[in-house]
Amino acid sequence: MNITILGTGNMAKGLASVFAAGGYDVILGSRDVARAKDTAKTLGGRVKGDGLMAAAQKSEVIVLAVPFEAAAETIAAAGGLAGKVLVDISNPLTPDYMGLTVGHSTSAAEEIQKLASEAKVVKAFNTVFASVLKGGGKVGKTPVTVFVAGDDEAANKTVETIGAKSGFSVLQSGGLKVARYLEPVAGLNIVLGYGKGHGTDIAPTWLLAA
Fold first, then answer.
1. CA 67, CA 71: separation in Å to the nearest integer?
2. Could you tell me the residue ranges of all domains in the chain?
3. Contact 24, 159 (CB under 8 A)
4. How does pLDDT run across 76-128, given as a tens digit for each residue?
5. Whole-prediction pTM
């Protein structure tokens, strides 16, 4: 299976590395094709680079790894992504990281579903710091939890499989509305990491009784 990641930032590079290590072929998509290809070269043989639309056409699973503010422009440039499993990793944070720009009655993921109305949007990986991805998706020796939320059961299962094969612990969390809870969890993680000085080698999880 191919996985396309739209973006070339730290999260895009980190996810590309762990997905490739999990056995997937990854295409980084960017408006700047040269940048996508140069970034891919630094990550190894299973990662390639291309333009946004060309990259999107090569995979059934698309990871949207751009800031929430850039989602509409990126989705349009990638061709709308109809029929794709679209994984939203964004968090709609204010510039000071102390609030959400959307919430309560909607979420970034739900707004992205409106923008890509014919895609199957799944919220995942938004509570994971890029530095944790550099560690292979683990904090110490413990796999980091990836919370998955979406309205399409098959799409959720696809993302769960990708996460598990890439070394994460995956927790199915419900429908896409659950993103209204997951996005504030990411905000708390940022406050603890940066505001409280715990650093970015941290990640939230849930302890489940056996």
1. 7
2. 2-195
3. no
4. 999 999 999 999 999 999 999 889 999 999 999 999 999 999 999 999 999 99
5. 0.97
